[in-house]
Amino acid sequence: MSAIPAELLHIIIGLVAVAASVGLIGLVMVWVERKVAGHIQRRPGPYEVGPSGVLQPLCDALKLVGKQLFMPTGADPILFWLAPVLAFLPVLLLFLPLPVGDGLMALDVNLGLLLILAFSGLAVLSVLLAGWASNNKYGLLGAARAVAQSVAYEIPLLLSVLAVSFVAGSLDLAQVVKGQGTWPWNWNIMTQPLAFIIYFVSALGETNRAPFDLPEAESELTAGFHTEYSGMGFGMFFLAEYANMVVVCSVATALFLGGWHGPVLPGPLWFVLKVSALMLLMVFARWTYPRVRFDQLLVINWKWLLPLAVANLLLTAFFVKLAQFA
Amino acid sequence: MTTNPIIDHLAGDFYTQNFAKTAGEGNLILNLGPQHPSTHGVLRVVVELDGEYIMRAEPVLGYLHRMHEKMAEVKTAAQFIPNMGRVDYGHALGWNWAFVGAAEKVGGIEVPERAEYIRVITCELNRIASHLLWWGAYLLDLGAFTPIMYAFDDREKILDILQIPTGSRLTYSYFRIGGVAQDLNAECIRLIQEFIPWFRARLPMYKDLVSDNIILRKRIENIGVIEQETCRRFGATGPVARGSGINYDVRRAVPYSVYPKLDFEVPTSDLKCARGRYDVRMIEMEQSLRIIEQALEMMPEGEILIKGAPKPSWKVPKGEGYFAVEGARGKIGAYVVSDGGKNIYRTKLRAPGFCNLSLFAEVSKGTILADAVAILGSLDLIIPEIDR
Amino acid sequence: MEALFTGLGALYLAKCDAAKTGQAFQAFLPAGSLVRAAERLLKANYYIEDICAVDCVEGFIVVYHFDHFEAPGRLTLRVLAPHAAPTLPSIANIFDGAEWHERETRDFHGVVFEGNPNLIPLLIDPEMADCFPLRKEEKARAKAKDMLEAGEVIYCHPSFTLMTPDAPAEVKESSGDQPATA
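^ Those are the sequences you sent over. The predicted structure of the assembly is below.
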C-alpha cells in the first residue's frame, strides 16, 4: 500500500466526522425542537420513549426509514428521487471549512466563505426539482415560492458576510476567527452589529424557518414542495433543513461571535455552545411568531435588508480604507 | 367527457368542471380542501388562480350535510333538541336556545326566571369557548403554533364548568322547552367565579403577545374589506357585520330573555377588515365575562323548568314562530311551522355562517391566496353549521 | 311597512304578533312582483335573512325573511309556487346572498328560481340532485291557513283564499290593481 497523502487522510477523516455529526445533529435537534416547542406551548413534549423522550428522534428515524417509498402518478422518477439527495449531500460539503477549534477544521482553504456561499445555492435547485417533479399543483406553488425566497435572501446574506471579511481582510474563516479575541467585546458583533442582524434574518429566510417558512406553509399549501414525499425522501429534506440551520449558525458564530474563542473552556466546546445558543434562538422564533405573508417577505428583503446591507458594506469599506491610511 | 377514464378523472368532478367552464386562459384551477389543515371543517373552495392572485372563488358545500331539517320532520320537538347540539359544535347552546325559543313561542310556554339566567350564563360561557377556538385556529392558519395551546388551556376550564350541569363537553343538549335540564350546583358556581378573574388576567397577555404583534398585524390589517352594503346584500351578521361598523346585536336589537337587565357593551369596529373582526371578537370575550358576573349576582332562586313543562311527546300547537339569538358567529334563527301534528311540519334553521360564507366569493376576488386563508379565518366558519 | 308594497299587486298584507311569531309584518305577493319588491327592500336598507319553502296542500309557499339593522322588525314575504311547475323569479341579482338560499330551496323542494346565476346543487350531492327530501306526501300536507299566522289583516285581495277566507278583511282600494295569480 502506497503512502496515503496526509492531506487526503485529513479530508477523509473530516468527511467521516462531518457525516457522523450531521446525523447526530439531526437526532439532537429534533428532540430539542420538540421539547422546546412543547414547553413554550405549556405541554411536556415527548416524554415516553427514553428518559425525557431522548430516544424519540431515533424511533422517528426508524419509522421514516421503514416507510414505503412511492411516487405519485405522472411524477418524473429521476428528478423526483434526485431532489432529496441533492438537498442533503451538498450540505456535507458546507461543514468542511468550519473552524471548530484552533487549527481544527476539515479543510483549510483560504476561500472558505466562498465555498459555503456557493454550495448553499444548490439547496434552491433541490427545492425546485422537488416541486416540479411532484406533478402536484401545491408542490409547484410551494417550489415557486421557495425559489423566489431563497434567491432573494441570498443577497443580504452575502453582503453582510462581505462586510465582516472586509474588516478581517480575508475570506478564510479561520483567519476571521483568529482576528477576534477571547472576550465578547473583542468579537466582531461589536464592530458589525447591523451585519449580524441582517445575517440572522437572512439566515432564517434562507433555511425556510419560521417566520419565513411559507414554502412549507401547512395551512395553505399542505406542505408545499415536499407534499408528495414520505418516508426517507421527506427524512432527507428534514435532515437537510436542520443541517443547513447548523451551518448557518456556525458561520454566524465564526464570523460574529468569536468562533472558538472563550475563557477557561476548550475551544470546540465554546464553539458548540455558541452554535447551540443561536439554534435555540431560531427554534424560539419558530414557535412564537406567525408566518409572514409571501409578498411581505420579499418586501422585507428588497426594501429593507438589501439597502441596509449595502449601506453597511459601503460604510465598512470606507472605515477600513480610512484605517489603512492612518 | 373523453373516452379515457384517466383524463376524465383529472378533469375534476362536477363542481370543478362547472367552475372550469368560465375559467380564463392559462389560469390554474385549484381546490382548497375538502381535506385541509386549516381547522374550519370540511370546506372546499375552488379557486381560479392567476399566479398567486385569485380571479374567482367558489365555496362548495355539502360535505357535512346531514339534513337536520328532515330529521326535524320525523321527530317530536323534544326529540330534536339533541340535534341542535350537533349543528354547531362551537356554540351549541346558542342553537339549543334558538330552537327551544321558537318552540316556546309557538307553544306559548313561559320560562322561569332562574332558568333564563342559567341560559344566559351557560350561553355566554359557550360563546367565550367558541371565540377561543376561533382565535387559536385562526392563528394556527397564519402560522403561529402556540396560541392555540393556550386557548385550549382556557377552553378546558370552560368545558369542565359546563360539563357539570349539561353532562357534555362539546355538543350540548341542555335546554328544554320550558327551561333547562339541570340546575347549576354550588361546585359549578364556584368554578365559574374562579374562572372569571383568571381569564380576565389572561386577556392582556394575549393582547401583548399576539394581537399587537407586528407580523400578525401585517397579515390581517386591510385584508378582506367588507362594506356595510355587502353585509346587507348577503345577510351577514355577528362579528362580520360589527367588524364593518354595523351596530347590530340581536341581544340589543330584539332583546330576549333577561338581556335587557344586563349591562354590557356591543363592540363594533370601523376598520371593516379582518383586523376589525378580530378586535370585535376579542372584546366580546371580555364583555361576556361581564355578563356572566352580573347574571351570577342577579340570579334568583326558583324553578329551572316551568311547572307542566311539555313532556317528550308534546305536540307543538298550530302556528308559526321565528326566534333568533345572538350566536358567536352571528344571528342564529329557527323558524318553526306546525300543524298541530305529532312532528313539527317544517323547521328552518338559519345558520349565520351560511350567510357569512356566501360573501367570500365576492370579497376574495383579486386577493392573494395567502390572504384568502386569512379572510376565511376571520369569518369564523364552522362548517357543520353551514351544511346542517 | 305596508308602504313598501303599494303598486305591487300584493295579495295579502297583515301585521303579525311579533311577540308570538317573531315576525312583524307579512305580505303575500304574486310571483311577478317579487323582483320589484326585493329592489324596494334593498333600497329601504333591509337585509336578507333566509329563504325557505313550506310544502302545503295549495302548493309550495316560499317564505322570504328580511330584517333591518337599524330598525329591527322581521318582514316576511310569501310567494306561492304551484306543485306542478314550481318556478319563481330569482332575487339573487339584487340580494346576492339569496343565490345560496335559493339553491338550497331547490335542493330540498325542487322550486326552480329563474335567473339564479348558479342553480346547481348546493348541499345535496349532484348525482342525487332531484331527490327533493323535504317534499311531503299528498296525505301528509296541511293547509296554509292551518299553520301560518293570519295576523291583523290590512289588505286581502278578494280572490285570495290561502289564509282566512272568512275573516272580515278590509278590502282597500290598492293603487295599481292586478288580477290575482294565486
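The radius of gyration of chain B is 22 Å. DSSP finds 17 helices and eight strands in chain B.

Shout if you want it in another format.
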